[in-house]
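Minutes, structural biology subgroup

Action item carried over from last meeting: produce the structure token record for Mitochondrial glycoprotein (Kalanchoe fedtschenkoi). EB confirmed the sequence was re-checked against the source entry. Recorded below for completeness.
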Amino acid sequence: MAFSSILRRSVARLGPVGAQIVRSQKQRQSSVFSALYRHASSPVMRPAFGSLSQIHHFSSPAAVKRTSSDENLLRVIEAEIQCAIEAEDQDKVEEAPDNFPFEIEDNPGEQTISLSRTYQGETINVVVHMPDIVSGEGAEDNEDDDNDDETENGTQSSIPLVVRISKKDGPSLEFGCTAFPDEIAIDTLAVKDPNASEEQIAYEGPDFADLDENLQKAFHKYLEIRGIKPSTTNFLHEYMISKDSREYLMWLKNLKSFVQA
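Output recorded by EB:
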């Protein structure tokens, strides 16, 4: 999901238009990496350290002066920064809604955020990963698929979640989930024992999809009561797109600072 920050939240709903947005953005990002490659391959970046005179020449003030390839690289990065600033403005998310049940811990430079809350003596922690954004490309090819549910989910953006529910110092339940718009799928379920030896290979139960259907529904309700529900994950989807935009912009600025140094 490299650099989905330039994508708009509406891309997934725009079909072919959204696909064109994604393609044009990828072309802009490709220009950044092409410039980086040319810069790294230039003679200045591959000096021949065959003699002391060459080493002295490389470290002289004349050699330190920025080359034309550096200037070109900076121009490409600065152009991409302007695009990223525009995307960040459009992707910006307001504060969490009043009924949002979790506290958010968001550290700049990290690909995930952490959520936490307590519920009737339980501690609930959630790790939210960057979204998997679908542009709409290839959606028409899947129209004849026999499994309508899988086809629909395959053309929707989603965010991965890891939900851990613990009680004091005892075992905890760990759910691996995928949150789609207005729907949450439970992919895995495991019982984690904090006192278990690292050398032990614990039995973690069958695949969640193989559980009795009534048991699956009961666990979905179990998570919903604890705050893992569509109203929560839909906000998180927008929040993570906004974070992706911020992180990409910060990454570009770090690149610029390095080249300018």
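Discussion: The two ends are 30 Å apart (CA to CA).
Next step: EB to file the record with the rest of the batch.
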